[in-house]
Amino acid sequence: MIRGRDRALQDLAIRAGGTYWHKKPEGEGSAYFACADFFSPGLFYFMRRKMTMKKIDSIRPGVAVIIFDECNRVLLQKRADVNLWGIPSGHVEPGETVTQAAIREVWEETGLDVSVIRLIGVYSEPDSQVFDYPDGRCVHFVTVCFEAMVKGGELKPQCSETLELCYFSPDELPDNLLFMHPRWLEDALARQETPFVR
């Protein structure tokens, strides 16, 4: 039986040309795939549709860092590897703590010196954390998401991974946004005292 929110998700999925499964489809290799998008003014939803589970090449620890400016706009980076906008994020390198990795990734991708001020959440659900790269790699990320504040630096990328940097209002996000990132931002805006575990 489909109730409330699931019925709304089903209707949205059908209108978008997809299919929504209330329960995981039976059969070998079937799984949920979550597509996230923002619709004006900031409406967030998931459309789940059946996909064939690809072989996951690796599982990687990752970090994501949400930075707001004085107008409560969020900093996004247009990434060179996928040509999509997203929250500054990256891998944890050997010998690093997740906090050290977060600070390093922000510096490399944005040129900003930041300090971590709170833990937003830890994300590992394959629904949203399995990512296919254009080169064919399929990676399952376990991502620790922080909020950080800017201490210094200049908004200028320090590496070739970044094509553009811009602050956006949460109600006016770009359409070409990495599919897992709206959930992180939604959780950050909830200002929940206890970190999310998803």
Automatic annotation (TrEMBL):
Record GO terms (molecular function): hydrolase activity
A Pfam family reported for this protein in Swiss-Prot or TrEMBL: NUDIX
Residue ranges annotated for the Nudix hydrolase domain, each copy included: 58-191
Tagged with keyword Electron transport: no
Keywords: Hydrolase
Highest taxon of source: Bacteria
Coiled-coil boundaries: none
Cofactor: Mg(2+)
UniProt-listed InterPro entries: Nudix_hydrolase, NUDIX_hydrolase-like_dom_sf, NUDIX_hydrolase_CS, NUDIX_hydrolase_dom
UniProt keyword annotation of Cytoplasm present: no
Family statement drawn from the similarity comment of this UniProt entry: Belongs to the Nudix hydrolase family.
PANTHER family according to UniProt: 8-OXO-DGTP DIPHOSPHATASE-RELATED, GDP-MANNOSE MANNOSYL HYDROLASE
Protein name per its UniProtKB record: Hydrolase, NUDIX family
